[in-house]
Amino acid sequence: MQHDPLTHDELRLALSYIPADDRETWINIGNALKTEYGDEGFPAWDKWSQGGQSYNAADAKSVWRSLSPGHVSMGTVIKLATDAGWTRAKHELSAEDRCRLKAEAEERRRRLAEQVEADQAKLARMQAAVADACEKVLALHLTDQGSSSYLDRKGVGAYGVLFPKRSVLISIDAQRERADVWVGSEVRDWFAQLPTPRPDHLHMFHLKTGSVVLPLRDYQGKLWAFQSILPNGTKLFPRFGRKAGCCHIIPGSREVIGIAEGYATGASVHEAMGWTVAVALDVGNMTRVVPQVQQCWPDARLVICGDDDPETEGNPGRAKSEALATEHGCLPAFADLEAS
C-alpha cells in the first residue's frame, strides 16, 4: 500500500507511539528510516531510540552503520504506530505540496540508491583487502600445532584450526581502503601511534598467542576471513571480513554432513559421529552455508546441529535450527552440549 510521504513532524509523532525497547523492532524501524531517508534518518531514529531503557549512544551509531536499506519500508513504521493508537491527521495536501513531497522522496531514494551501490562496491574492495591480509597471516604467522585452554575447557580437539606463532595485528583502514599486517613489536608500535579517540575508519583484528583461529572459506575453498577465539571464549571477527556463505570445515565422513553454529558444538558432533561438520559461526549464516554444502556434496544427508538451551526463554537456538531444517529439507539434531 502506498502512503503519502510523512512530514518530519508526522514522523516524530508516529515514532512516539512505538516503544523502543524491543531490539527487533528497534532494528526494523532503523532499517525503514534508512531506506526512506538514508543517513538523514539517523537523528530521528536516534532521538526515538533514547526512549528505550537500554539505549547506548555508541551502540546506536554502530548499529545504524550496519543497517542495510531496502529490507523494511516506511509502511512498517506506519502500521506499528497505527496499531499502537496513532492516527495520521487528516488534512488535504495541495497538489503542489503533494507533488513537492513526492519529488523530495524520489530524490532521497535516488541518492540512497547511488549510495547503496557505492557502499556495496566499497564493501567488496574491503572484503578483498581483508582476505589478502588473512592469506599473508596464514602463510607466515599461523601454525597447526598449538594448545588452547578454550579447547581444553570445552573438551574437544583441534580440527583444522590454527594457532598464532606470535602476536599479529591486521589493521583495517576504511578510508584508505587497505588492510595491513603487523607482527611482534610492530603491534606495540601501531597501538602507540593510534590516535585517541580511535577514528571511526580505523579497525583492528588482533591475533594473540593462546587463541584458536578458524579459517573461513567459501565453497570453492577461498579464504576470506578468520574467527579467533580467545582463551576466555570471546569470539572476534575482522571488520569487513566476509562471513556470508563461508564456514570452517571439520573433515570426516561425508555420507552425513553436520551444520553447526560454533566450533565447540561442531567438534563435539564430529567426535561423537565421525561426520564432516561445517561450522557457520551463527544461525543467520547457517542458512547461507546449507546451500553451499548441498552444492559441494549433493549426495550427502545434511543435519542441522542446533544449540539446545532450555534455560533461555523460548529456546531460540532450538527453534531457529528446527525452522532452518524444515526450510532446507534437513534433519535437526540436538545434543546435551555446553553452548559453544
UniProtKB/TrEMBL annotation:
Ranges of residues in domain Primase C-terminal: 14-81
Single GO MF annotation: hydrolase activity, acting on acid anhydrides
Cross-referenced Pfam families: PriCT_2, Toprim_3
Top-rank lineage group of the source organism: Bacteria
Coiled coil, from the record: 102-129
Keyword annotations: ATP-binding, Coiled coil, Helicase, Hydrolase, Nucleotide-binding
Record CDD domains: TOPRIM_primases
Signal peptide per UniProt: none
InterPro entries, alphabetized: PriCT_2, TOPRIM_DnaG/twinkle, TOPRIM_dom
Residues in Toprim domain copies: 257-325
Protein's recorded name: Putative DNA primase/helicase
